[in-house]
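Design request, tokens follow.
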């Protein structure tokens, strides 16, 4: 996504929740499983299954993560991004409604808040850009634990 993982998050599927156990107090008294002990291959088992990824409980970004296709392979391979649309919203923009307001302002240089947002971002924001090569460079730098499914 391009976010910094500086906010709390969790995964949800079929009434089960996964997250970081050190953030237990922020999960509204629900049982949260340790996300580091549950491979996604044990959660999404068949094509078209999905789960919800919630990022930043204050902003409440909710993402539908769907397993589109299972491809056979001889050996585990790291993920590769083949394409995408639009840039990631900035951190702390205020969730979906805050992001909509941000876009309204950033696409209108005459708006009185325009300069404030440009300074806050540290430069211009091109919402329609998507750089899959940059995404793949980020993916290459991540240490992926490759395990065969048991």
């Amino acid at each position: 996504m391009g976010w910094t993982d500086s906010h709390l998050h969790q995964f949800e599927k079929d009434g089960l929740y996964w997250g970081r156990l050190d953030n237990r107090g922020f999960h509204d008294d629900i049982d949260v499983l340790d996300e580091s002990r549950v491979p996604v291959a044990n959660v999404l088992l068949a094509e078209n299954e999905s789960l919800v990824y919630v990022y930043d409980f204050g902003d409440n970004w909710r993402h539908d993560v769907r397993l589109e296709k299972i491809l056979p392979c001889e050996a585990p391979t790291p993920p590769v991004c083949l394409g995408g649309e639009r840039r990631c919203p900035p951190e702390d923009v205020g969730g979906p409604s805050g992001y909509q307001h941000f876009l309204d302002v950033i696409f209108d240089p005459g708006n009185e808040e325009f300069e404030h947002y440009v300074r806050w971002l540290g430069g211009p924001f091109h919402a329609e850009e998507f750089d899959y090569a940059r995404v793949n460079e980020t993916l290459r730098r991540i240490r992926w634990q490759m395990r065969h499914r048991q």
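Comment from the thread starter after seeing the answer: thanks! Strands lie at 9-13, 16-19, 32-34, 50-55, 61-66.
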